[in-house]
Amino acid sequence: MRTQVAIVGAGPAGLLLGQLLHTAGIDNVIVERQNSAYVLGRIRAGVLEQTTLDLLDAAGVGHRAHAEGLPHDGIELLFEGRRHRIDLHALSGGKRVMVYGQTEVTRDLMEAREAAGLLTLYESSDVSLHGIDGTRPEVHFSRNGKREVLQCDFIAGCDGYHGISRQSVPEAALRTFERVYPFGWLGVLTDTPPVCDELIYANTPRGFALCSMRSKTRSRYYLQVPSEAKVDDWSDDAFWSELRLRLDPEARERLVTGPSIEKSIAPLRSFVAEPMRFGRLFLAGDAAHIVPPTGAKGLNLAASDVGFLFDAFTDHYRETSAAGIDHYSQRCLKRVWRAERFSWWFTSLMHRFPETGAFGQKIQEAELGYLVESRAASTSLAENYVGLPTGGPVRSTG
Fold first, then answer.
1. CA distance 258 to 253
2. Active site residues
3. Residues of the chain where predicted confidence (pLDDT) is lower than 50
4. Confidence (pLDDT) at 397
5. If we measure between CA atoms, which residue out of 385, 390, 239, 364 comes closest to residue 306?
6. Are the CB atoms for 391 and 306 separated by under 8 Å?
7. Between vectors from CA 152 to CA 148 and to CA 158, what angle results, nearest 5°?
8. In a 3-state reduction of DSSP, which class is residue 72?
9. What confidence tens digit (pLDDT) does each residue in 138-170 have?
10. Alpha-carbon distance 382 to 241, whole Å?
11. Domain spanning 5-71+98-178+269-352, CATH class
């Protein structure tokens, strides 16, 4: 079996890259360890930057996001018992974000790929990468009881933090940077109307809370919990009781509770591996970097990686230029580290850290006060939240 670009991982990054390459006439095959139902069932982020929407449009799959997504022009910060609105739209020169679940993005991309008749090899086990430092890389895997080989020109590693792609890079060729946070997010998905039309980020003496949503009838709520917490320790009633204690009186009054349809705890970490290219292997998304979810950057960073990688491959195949390939890692990492900085800062600002004590709490309160009273500080938050520039538009496929 042979293709031009082998994509490892059928999450949103791999699917988006595959669809973009298809629009440019570049052949690609996706190799995925799980089945399609498992991939589609993963509950993840739901806030999209404009650059991500632009990529979905370029791939021909943005229509449902525009029709069903919820445009957001602001967020609310809750501290010392009061809410303060950050006007993202006004402060960022007219930009906004879109609330549209990652599950729906994945569904749209899956359906488009199937409609185009493109090959996705689900349930591929024992995946290994070979020849990535040469000119004829290969992806080896087992499927339906048979060992198979996919020959290609390039490999895009879109298989996440625990995937085989980053593990295939020689240890001496990779530098990693990591910060593990001493808490996680307990998340609940519920078919109840959101407590507010915009996201509420809460800094309280009991810990952080986030009130988010996926639609006008489906809500997503989070609580900061200790890193050793277990989902089984939290009944629905216990979750709602604790969330109420972290909200202001108006939000508490408006909160509609109901049975959870999904409940999980996500650990928080900051992680970067560099460079993001080794020979013919290119890392994208969680395979190369992880951000705490506070700044809503995970999916958006993965999408920007894909945009840079798409540019690199179209440079190679259409213009026989190596410029995009040679500068891929540099272009990505510039944006990655700025998003890492923002996500670290916002996480540090909104969460209670066990080691900082009363002094740390007072510093947070002072910075939050400055943030909402200073237009310059609010502008910095808004510019980062809606998404910093990628350094250039996605290449037209027309």
1. 15
2. 72, 201, 293, 297, 385
3. 393-398
4. 41
5. 390
6. no
7. 85
8. strand
9. 999 999 999 999 999 999 999 999 999 999 999
10. 31
11. alpha beta
